[in-house]
Amino acid sequence: MKFIQLLFLLQLLIFLNSCGIYRKTDARKYPPNPKERVAKNMEEGKGFRIFDSNRSKGTNYEFASSNELWRATLDTIDFMPLTTANYSGGIIVTDWYSDSENLNESLKITVRFLSNEIRSDALDLNIFYRDCDSSNRCKIIEKQGNLVAELKKEILKKATVYKEESTNKDKKDN
Predict the structure, then answer these.
(1) Mean pLDDT of residues grouped by 10 in the chain (174 residues)?
(2) CA separation for the pair 157, 125 (Å, rounded)
(3) Which of 21, 24, 30, 169 is the most exposed place for a label (fewest CB within 10 A)?
(4) Which residues lie closer than 8 Å to 132 by C-beta, 6 or more apart?
(5) What is the DSSP code (8-state) at residue 100?
(6) pTM for the complete prediction?
(7) How close are the terminal C-alpha atoms of the chain, in Å?
(8) What is the C-alpha separation between 54 and 30, in angstroms, rounded?
(9) What pLDDT is stored for residue 141 in this prediction?
(10) Could you give the CA distance from residue 103 to residue 78 in angstroms, rounded to a whole number?
(11) Number of CB atoms found within 10 A of residue 88's CB
(12) Any idea where the domains of the chain sit in the sequence?
């Protein structure tokens, strides 16, 4: 038992020695007041605080519900079943959707988010059409047309409205 304690103590000393705890520093470069040193270290990113009384009480978490572009996209394509919705990956993929009139034709939408900003180039929207014949042989093609432009326009409109609502709410809170 003593051997294990001695081995542990020796290993601890080796690890602590290799950390380089002691380094020569120039006292003229560091302010003598501890609060000023802490502030300087925090500005330089050298430290952290567990309990910070100077921190503002409001928090800004990046959840999917706080991203207006994400919410607007989900609201616009809410009639379609989703296959994948990955906020951290920035992609939404719907399942094949067809209306009750024509069951042989269906469409699938993929949306990639290239930015969180509300701009026309922040979205990469693709629509795939699947046309199946009576023997269940299907052709899948990607179409660029009015529907892509209309969906983008609708998403951007909703995102703008959500952004304005959030801005107005923040103004009222302050």
Answers:
(1) 86 69 68 78 66 50 69 92 89 90 87 88 92 88 88 93 84 64
(2) 15
(3) 24
(4) 104, 105, 106, 138, 139
(5) S
(6) 0.59
(7) 63
(8) 22
(9) 92
(10) 20
(11) 7
(12) 68-173
- What pLDDT score does 36 carry? 81
Question: CA 152, CA 18: separation in Å to the nearest integer?
Answer: 57
DSSP per residue, 28-63: GGS-SSHHHHHHHHHHTT----SS-TTS-S------
The residues, any chain, with a CB within 8 Å of residue 72's CB and separated by 6 or more, are 155, 156, 157, 158, 159, 161, 162
Say if strands 123-132 and 82-86 run parallel, antiparallel, or are unpaired. unpaired
Best CATH choice for the domain 68-173 from the list 3.30.530, 3.40.190, 3.30.450, 3.30.310: 3.30.530
- Total residue count of the chain as it appears in this document: 174
> In the 8-state DSSP scheme, what is residue 97?
B
Q: Which of 113, 68, 72 is nearest to 93 (CA)?
A: 113
Please name the residues in contact with 113: beta carbons below 8 A apart, sequence gap of 6 or more.
69, 70, 73, 90, 91, 122, 123, 124
